[in-house]
Amino acid sequence: MDEAAVGAEAPRILVVGPSWVGDMVMAQSLFITLKRRHPGARIGVLAPGWSLPILERMPEVDEAIALDVKHGEFGWKTRRDVARSLKGRFDRAIVLPRSLKSALVPFLAGIPRRTGFTGEQRYVLLNDRRRLDKGVLDQTVKRFVALGLDVEQAAGGDFEIPYPRLRVDRGRQTELRAELSLGERPAIGMMPGAEYGPAKQWPLEYFRELAETLIGKGYAVWVLGGPKDTEAGDVIADGLESAHNLCGKTRLADAVDLLAACEQVVTNDSGLMHVAAAVGTRIQALYGSSSPAYTPPLTGNADIHYLALSCSPCFERTCPLGHRNCLKQMSPAGIAQSIQG
User: Fold this and answer.
1) Of 268, 218, 215, nearest to 243 (Cα)?
2) Which residues, 6 or more positions from 52, have their beta carbon under 8 angstroms from its beta carbon?
3) CATH class as words, domain 172-340
4) How confident is the model over 304-317, as pLDDT tens digits?
5) Rounded to whole angstroms, how far apart are CA atoms 142 and 96?
6) Cα–Cα distance, 163 to 57 (Å, whole number)
7) Which residues contact 214 (CB under 8 A, 6 or more apart)?
């Protein structure tokens, strides 16, 4: 399809965003690419309501549109109503998820050009279908950016991947230090959670041991995560002076500012890892069942810890062999040495 026919000079582009924190951060690489290719373009992002605080930190996003459908829910009425509100407002849609339901809103809104990877029988819903070559587009972020390029440009997989960069609110950062009584010690962030499952989680007792070591060397430890991570944060922080369990006590936007205030973070392969990368904080990234080749932190300021055992990566939610050696054989002493190196 000729891009000139759909407003190539300054197109109005709707991106249907992903449903995970880390993926939403990586999607910024696409937004940056679109703005570079189409100066003056207006970018709207259709995304779960929880992700709007992240999108607000991306200068490339002109409009964030909430699609509040529960995970796994079809939500026909909600999708139809949102589609009606978008009619005539966009020239093109880029659908990042590969599910059928994710392509419904652009189709129902009558957006002229609808781009996405072939899958789940979306032949009618998408009219600019791309074949996904997993060998060439071997990273999540590459797949996102490729959908913003012409087919020929994306074909070889050799194209620029701009790193995400989230805005930081320095004023709010100062307020949070006071509100949460965080003190003035230099902070190491710890993110023990991993929404996907326990096969991606470094043992909590290792986080605890590392926290004790770091506090003894003059650091504070801030444990960050959602309400589901509160108990894990207690295991790490309880009884330790200068350790703060912030899980469930902060909003997602606050986590952006707190991670930017950390000197370094120690993190599983998780959404908050990608947030930390996008604010420029040095990362100690712990990989077990997943692969740093597929979802690396998009930063030049990271130490990757990955044992590459014969059973890794398995990409399973729980360890199929029942031992989690890919993470248990990664010692706290080794991570402490990397932090101080």
Assistant:
1) 215
2) 64, 66
3) alpha beta
4) 999 999 999 999 99
5) 11
6) 14
7) 188, 221, 336, 339
Report pLDDT digits (tens) over 236-276.
999 999 999 999 999 999 999 999 999 999 999 999 999 99
pTM assigned to the model: 0.93
Q: Where in the chain does DSSP place strands (E)?
A: 12-16, 42-47, 63-66, 92-95, 113-117, 128-130, 187-191, 220-223, 243-245, 264-268, 282-287, 302-306
Which homologous superfamily is 3-154 in?
Answer: Glycogen Phosphorylase B; (3.40.50.2000)
Torsion on CA atoms 5, 9, 14, 20, rounded to nearest 10: 130
Q: Do domains 3-154 and 172-340 have the same CATH topology?
A: yes
Written as six digits, the tokens of 206 are 């290792």
Domains in the chain: boundaries: 3-154, 172-340
Dist CA 173 CA 69 (whole Å): 31
